[in-house]
Amino acid sequence: MVGTVIGTSREDNYAPGPRGSFLVGSLRDFRSDRLLDTMEQAYAEYGDVARFHIGPRMVHLISHPDLAQEVLIKEKGTFFKIQEGTDKKIGLGLVLGEGLLTNRDQNSWFARRRMLQPVFHRRCIATMVDEMVATGQKMLSRWQELYGPKDVINIHEEMMRATLDIINRTMFGADVTGEAGKVGAAMTVLTRYAFAQAGNPFSLPTWIPTQRNKEFHRARQIIDSVVLGLIRARQATRDSGDQPRGDLLDMLLDAEDAETGKRMTDQEVLDEVKTVFAAGHETTANALTWTWLLLSEHPEVREKLKAELDMVLGGHSPTSTDIPNLRYTKQVFDEVLRLYPPVPALVRRAVRPAMLHGYEIPVASRVLISIYNIHRHPRFWEEPTRFEPERFSPERKAAHQDLAYIPFGAGQHKCIGNNFALMEGPLLLAMIAQRYELELVPERPVELEVAITMRPKEGLYVRLRPRLETV
Ligand code: HEM
Question: Which atom of ligand 1 is nearest to the CA of 72?
């Protein structure tokens, strides 16, 4: 991040930041392979608020929990997630249509959120534990069959497969693993494309037949046809009078607006299913992948985790009654989400002029809330880069500052799937760690990239060392 510092004095009321290059400003610094460095350096050089220019756009990077509170909660009428007043779909909206994550209209988003909230209630998610565990068991059997201790496996791919399988089963009650490869790969193309397209004001429209645009359309077509096929199959079985399965798809098809009693149209169900697919598997897979990286580097945490798993599970697969006792396992997962938040930054747009930390935020400028920086802020975290799951013990957790820990965001758009992820992540972690130790392959070092989510660019490579036989 090079460039002359502008606006360093507070008199001009603009936050400090780099000038960047001629015309494009700091565009390069926001590329997927540089965003994390850019965020770290911006905090080190300019503090809690830094101002960038990306072409004609002004972007403010914020790194303090109080500022996150202002933007996400207190001033939610000033900072919008939603691109109101534009007809043009951008970024993930191109992929997920009007689903909850990308809906562009505040009123219809609100009605939909109210309708879907009960589906993701902790009580409903608790009914999905058996499906999650069954998927974990299937994965472990596959590993046992396929991999010996010398084999090198891409654990990120395995985690993607497992979490996609879980979404499939909990959504469709179906085992559609055969499609997993196709949907997973297509989803990666789509999110990379969406990130590049949303972050770059100079990106070409999707109808221009560039190689990237063609790849994008192909990937979107794969996802739409797979998902639509599954919805149609379900509607057919419901119409023929079959018993409802009570899975996520049934819940979505049955969801009604509490005020109007209205249900969703087919197109709306398609967009929500895609949204849950997209939002609900890669994030958790990334978190689990970072878990294996951190555990491989921290034998003391690994030992403590194994001791808990042996004591609570004694070699058996977990059941819902074990979950409250897997306390340290949950703390490990919480701490991974702090150091490697799968969504490292949130974006909002100022719809009217605002002030943050005494700096002017002009209308239409973007605010990037750096979850990554907030989670490593030295004022709120002692030795912030240290991996220390005990930070999340009940006593220490109670002392955390509001919004210093926001892996699921905060305010009205807070992740609707957080209960799902916090059930699924620790369950898979427990099942794998009680059976195997994962040893990093040193000749394949990990490289980070951010394409909306933070993921290992070329995967994470490990060898599986079996621990004990489970029943
Ligand atoms: C570790 C896993 C996960 C992480 C770290 C995560 C993170 C987030 C974050 C930070 C947001 C807020 C975005 C914003 O404010 O701009 C969000 C929203 C959302 N997440 Fe998650 N998520 C995870 C898992 C899931 C799962 C499992 C599902 C569904 C089953 C899901 C569905 C959604 C949806 C639908 C939204 C949009 C909510 C709205 O705008 O009303 N997420 N997620």
Answer: 15
Q: What local confidence, expressed as pLDDT, does residue 182 receive?
A: 66
Q: SS3 for 52?
A: strand
- Residue 184's alpha-carbon distances to 141, 179, 222, 282, in angstroms, are 21, 8, 10, 9
Predicted pLDDT of residue 89: 58
pLDDT of residue 118: 86
54-67 per-residue burial string, b: 16 or more CB within 10 A, e: under 16? beebbbbbbbbbbb
Rounded CA separation 342/282 (Å): 9
The C-alpha atoms of residue 333 and residue 290 are separated, in whole angstroms, by: 10
Judging by DSSP bridges, how do beta strands 345-350 and 79-80 pair with one another?
A: antiparallel
What is the per-residue pLDDT for 283?
93
CB 4 within 8 A of CB 18: yes
Among 415, 419, 423, 454, the mutation site with the greatest number of ligand 1 atoms within 8 A of its Cβ is 415
Could you tell me which residues come within 8 angstroms of residue 468 by beta carbon, excluding any fewer than 6 positions away? 315, 434, 435
Q: Which among 241, 269, 104, 244 is positioned nearest to 173, based on CA atoms?
A: 244
Enter the pTM of the model: 0.90
Predicted confidence at residue 9, as pLDDT, reads 41
Q: Is 453 in the pocket of ligand 1 (CB under 6 A)?
A: no
**pLDDT score at 10:** 47
Q: How deeply is 384 buried, as exposed, middle or buried, from its count of CB atoms within 10 A (0-12, 13-18, 19+)?
A: middle
Q: Is 420 in the pocket of ligand 1 (CB under 6 A)?
A: yes
270 and 192 in contact (C-beta within 8 Å)? no
What is the whole-number distance in angstroms between the Cα of residue 408 and the centre of ligand 1? 6
Beta-bridged to residue 61, according to DSSP, are: 50, 368
Domains of the chain, each with CATH number or no CATH: 5-466 (1.10.630.10)
pLDDT lower than 50: segments of the chain: 1-11, 84-87, 470-471
User: Does the beta carbon of 104 sit less than 6 angstroms from any atom of ligand 1?
Assistant: no
